[in-house]
Structures are given as structure tokens and as C-alpha cells.
Amino acid sequence: MKATPKAALAAFFVAALCAFAPGAASAQARDTVYAVGGIQVDETAASAASAQEAAFSAAQTAGFERLVRRLAPQADLLSHGVPPVEGPALDHLVQSVDVEQERRSATRYIGRLTVRFNPDAVRAVMRQYGLNVVDTRGPPVLVAPVAGPGVSDDAAAAWRDVWTNGGFADELVPLPVAPSELRGAPSWDVAAPFAQNAAAASVLYVTLRIQGADATASLTEITANGPRPRGDASARINGTDAAALRAALAGLAEQASARVQNDWKTQVAASGGQQARISASAIYTDQHQWETIKEALEGAAQTLISQIRIEAVGRDGALVSFSFVGDRNQLVSELARRGVTLSDTANGPTLQLSGGR
Q1: pLDDT (mean) for 79-96
Q2: Packing angle between helix 328-336 and helix 287-300, nearest 10 degrees?
Q3: pTM greater than 0.85 (yes/no)
Q4: Is residue 219 located within the same domain as residue 289?
Q5: If 0-12 CB within 10 Å is exposed, 13-18 middle and 19+ buried, where does residue 331 land?
């Protein structure tokens, strides 16, 4: 039986409404903040099983400390420190320990692990100890680990590795790593295509320099508006072996990440954790364009926006509402990098595909 235009339009309305479930996507994105990856362990015991058990326990302890430092404002950490949770109380907070990489012998376990924590349980413990919780994600920043003059190939490879396998992509402000082809001095013209591929609005160049036993990283964040110096990080290389070098470089990466994360947490805290609410008209010419706009909103639900609702749907437009954290310019940039323009018109805020796609 041939469908009538009215039936086809009704089917479009149903598909438009049923295909969009941003609440679940937003909650899932927030809960991934409670996964701590890139935890390096090396434990020796009387047996392989005991060594693995000790490694998993060490990973839970290290993961919990890193998670608390991820979620708590810096001022709270200075006042209260990391809660002294261990043993069965810590086990209660852990959902799983996942193996990223492992090597084992009869008495030793070496691995890189991910520990996933129960969000509700962790939030309850942190608040019990007087720590506020910031688990709202910010837009990703692409990291370009660059080796400065005189840095050996081995050190340059280790510098890239600590970023790639350090779990930094799971932070509040995700820090994915750029391909090795992005090198040289900070340049937005060079970095922009890499940022676009990573859905990032900025690129953080972290340039490594080593002089004797001193390692430093110069941090420069660049956007279309120009460069922003983020200072230097420094660490001492306590030894001449590869493990000592890696430990120092991992410390540099953690310092660099902390600068970005603390800036974001300060911004969220300054707003009192409050979110603004916006209603916007989504303008499109066909269902494909509407699906693209929805995909952009779903993607932004991993960072700045939440509580997305479709209020009404028509043949060539829809009314949507959502909450967002941060300022309006950040919201505009976040949607723009996903191919959607948010602009103010005579009819109020309007969402359209960028470039009339």
C-alpha cells in the first residue's frame, strides 16, 4: 500500500522523536569520567596469583587517588586531602579492574590497568569527607607531544607513550593525542586539520627538553584566535635507565594535564555548578539534516550540555531545549566543531547546519 504524504510525515515525526535519547548518552558520558586508565603496576610475590592480586590492589589504590584528584576542586584537596579509603571500603567503590596490557612470571606481574569505579559510591564518599565533586566534562583538547632540540629518539618515543597510554583521554577535559605527523613549533594553520579530526577546539603543544637529569615541558595551547602560553612543567630524572626516564616524563604529563583540568574545575566551580537552560529552533530541510543536528547535540552531551528535550517537531523545524555549563561562547564553539551553528535570530536562538550542509 502506498503511503500518503500525511502518513510519511507522521512516520518522520515518530522517527525523529524515537531516535533521540540524549539523557542516557549524557549520563553514560559522565560515568566514563569514573574510569581511570593507564595505571602502571609492577608487583612481585610468592606466586603468580599473589602477584596479580597485589597488582590489582595497588591499581585500585592508585586509581582512587587519581580519580579524587580528577573530580575534586584544588582548594578542597588542599584543605581535606584524599580520603583514606582502603581494604573492603575501597573494594566497595570498584566496579571492575580491566587489563590493558600485562606480562607475568611465576612471581611477578607487570601490567597497565583500568579501574572502573561506582559513580554514586565515589560521590558519596567524597562528600562525606567534605570534598565537592566536579564531574562535568569539558570539550577535548588535542595534545601534541613534541621533542625539542637534542632530545633522543628513545626519549621522544617515551614522551609520546606516556601521553598515549596514560589514561589522559578519560580526564574531565579529555586529552587525546595527535598523530606523530603533527610536530614542530605551535601553529594553528598546521594543527587545525588534526584538531578537527579529533573534534577538539584547541591543541596543546607539550614540547619536551632534557638537560642532564632535568626534564622540562613547555606548554602552549593554540586556537584559531592565537596561542596561549600555559607555562612549563619540570621533573628530575632519578636514574639512567628507561624506567627512571619514563617516571619523570609521566610526572611532566600529569603536571600538564593538571593545569588544564584545574582551569576547567575552577570555571565550573565559579558558576556554582549552575547550568543555564536554552530553547532553540532547529531548522532543516529534510530528515538527514535533522539527524545531523541531533548527532551534534548527542556529541555535545559528552561535554557541555545535558537534559536535552525535543519540545516539538515539524516538517522543516523543531524546538529543542537543553542545559549547558560554561559560557555561551564555549557552547557556540562546541556545537560549531560538530558542524552546527547556534545563532541569535529574530525568532530567538537557532540551530542550523554550518555552511548549509
Answers
A1: 95
A2: 130
A3: no
A4: no
A5: buried
